[in-house]
Amino acid sequence: MTSVTELRLRDIRCFAGEQTVAIPRIMLLVGENSTGKTTFLGCYSAFAQLVCNQEHYYDPFNVDPFDMGTFLSIVRQGADSFALGGCVNGVEMTLEFGSADGTPCEQRAQVKSQGTPELQFERLRASEVWKLTSPEYAFSLDANSVSYSQFSQWLGMALRYQQLPYGGDIGAFKKQTNPSDSEITDFARLVNHLTKLSSVLPASKPKVRAVPPQILSPRRSYASHPFLPNGINALHESEAILERIARAGDQLKLFSEVDIHHNKDGGYELEVAVSGHRRNIVDVGFGVHCALEMLKWIGIDSEATILMQQPETHLHPMAQALFAQLLAKSAGRFIIETHADHIINRFCICVRKGEVLPTDLGIYWFEQKGSDVVIHEISLDEEGNLIDVPANYREFFERETEEFLGF
Questions:
Q1: Considering only CA atoms, which of 136, 245, 144 is closest in space to residue 185?
Q2: Closest CA to 373 of 2, 4, 1, 13
Q3: Hey, which of 52, 71, 150, 391 would disulfide with 205, CB 3.0 to 4.6 Å?
Q4: How far apart are CA 201 and CA 198, in angstroms?
C-alpha cells in the first residue's frame, strides 16, 4: 500500500514559508473559516497525484472536488514560486512550481530515500535542458530526449520502469552527444544512481477518495443507481454496500435499513427504515440523506485515504459523536476538516477507551496570524488528553463560556 506520511507546503496561499505536517491515520483539521484547511486537503490530493504520476494530462491541482485554479490562485501573494512535497513509503519528494502561461509547471524537484543520495532536478534555458545533480555528479539532459514535460511524469512513467536516459547505455550516449571524459563519468554515475532510485519509487500512487462537499438534493427517483458508479444496473452488486451503510446508520441511530429498487418508470428509488417505518429518502430528514452520502464512502476501499469537509453538517450532535466513534473503530485513513467539538471530543474519548491509538490520531489547528496561517500539531496521551496545546487554541470558546456564565 502506498501512503503519505508527511506533507510539506511552501508559499501556497495563506501558508508563508515552509510548513511540514505529519499525516497520522486519522487527521482532524480545525480552525476558523478561511484558514487554509480546504487548501490543505487540495494539496494532499495533488501530492498524491504527483508521487507516482502516470497521468498524461497534467493538472494535479484541479482534481474534483478541489478546484485550486491557476498558478496565480495557488501561489502566495508576492512569491514567484511555490512548493509541495512530503514522504511516501520512505521516499522524500519535493516539487517546486513556477508559472508556464499561467499554469503550474515543475521548475525544480528533489527526490531521495534511505540508502540513496538526493537527486535534484532543475529546468534551464527556457526548459530546453534538465539539470540533474547529486553530491557525486552534475548532468545536463536535453529536454527533447525526455518523453514527458514534467519531472513527476518522468519519474512515474519512465524511471519507475528503468527507462533511463539514452537507455542507460554509455555507447549510445557517446554516439549521440560526443561527450567529454568527465561527462562520460557523470553519465555512468547518473545511470547507477537512477537504477537504485527506480527500485524504491512508489509502485502506485496513494489512493484518495474525496467526499464531495456539495450534497445533491434527495430525489424520489434516480435515473441511475445512486450508490454504484457508471450507472451499473445490477442491484445485487450493491448489496454489500447497502448492508455496510445500514449497519453504520444503525450505529449512528439514524436508520436501520437501506433499500434500492426499480420503480415502474425504470428508475431507482432509495428507501430507508427510520423508527421502524420504511420511507422514501425524500420523506425523511435531510440529515439522513447527508449521512448516506458520507457513509457510502467509508469502507469502500480500506487502502484509500478519505478526505472529508465538515461531515457534521446537518447532523445532530449525538450523530456527530457517533460518526467520530465509527471512524475511530474502522481501519480506514481519514483527513477531516471539522468545526464540531462533538467530533473532536468523541475521538478523544475513543483514545481513552482504547478504541483508537493516540499515535493514530492528530489534531491540527490552523491559526491565523495576520495574513499568515501556522499549522500546530496537537497530540494526545493515552487518556485522550490534549498535549502540546497552543496558548490561544480555545480562546474563543473560553471567552464565550465565561460570558454565558456571567463572569
A1: 136
A2: 13
A3: 52
A4: 5
Give me the pLDDT at residue 56, please: 79
- Give the Cα separation of 405 and 396 in Å (integer): 14
Using one digit for the tens of pLDDT, what is the confidence trace for 51-108?
Answer: 988 887 889 999 999 999 999 999 999 999 999 999 999 999 999 999 999 999 999 9
**Is residue 114 within 8 Å of 90, Cβ to Cβ?**
yes
Closest CA to 288 of 262, 264, 266, 313: 313
**Could you read off the pLDDT of 357-376 as tens digits, one per residue?**
999 999 999 999 999 999 99
Gap between the Cα atoms of 44 and 29, Å rounded: 13
Please tell me the chain's helix, strand, coil percentages from 3-state DSSP, rounded to the nearest 5: 35, 30, 35
Query: Is residue 246 helix, strand or coil?
Result: helix
Amino acid sitting at position 95: L
- pLDDT-above-70 percentage for the chain: 96
What gap in Å lies between CA 304 and CA 91, rounded to an integer? 19
Phi/psi of residue 108, nearest 5 degrees: -145, 155
- State the DSSP string of 264-326: TTS-EEEEEEETTEEEEGGGS-HHHHHHHHHHTTTTS-TTSEEEEE-TTTT--HHHHHHHHHH
Grid cell digits, residue 130 = 534538465
Per-residue cell: 156: 512515474
Residue with cell 503550474: 104
Contact residues for 402 (Cβ-Cβ < 8 A; gap 6+): none
Question: What is the C-alpha separation between 118 and 193, in angstroms, rounded?
Answer: 9
Q: Would you tell me the crossing angle of helices 317-329 and 286-295 to the nearest 10 degrees?
A: 10
Distances (CA, A) of 237 to 44, 211, 228: 31, 21, 8
- Contact criterion met (CB below 8 Å) for 5 and 338: no
Instruction: List the end-to-end C-alpha distance of the chain, in Å, as a whole number.
Output: 53
Task: For residue range 302-330, list pLDDT tens digits in order.
Answer: 789 999 999 999 999 999 999 999 999 99
CA 322/CA 346 separation, integer angstroms: 8
As a whole number of angstroms, the distance between CA 51 and CA 221 comes to: 41
Report yes or no: 339 and 312 within 8 Å, Cβ to Cβ.
Answer: yes
What is the phi/psi pair of residue 23, to 5°?
-115, 100
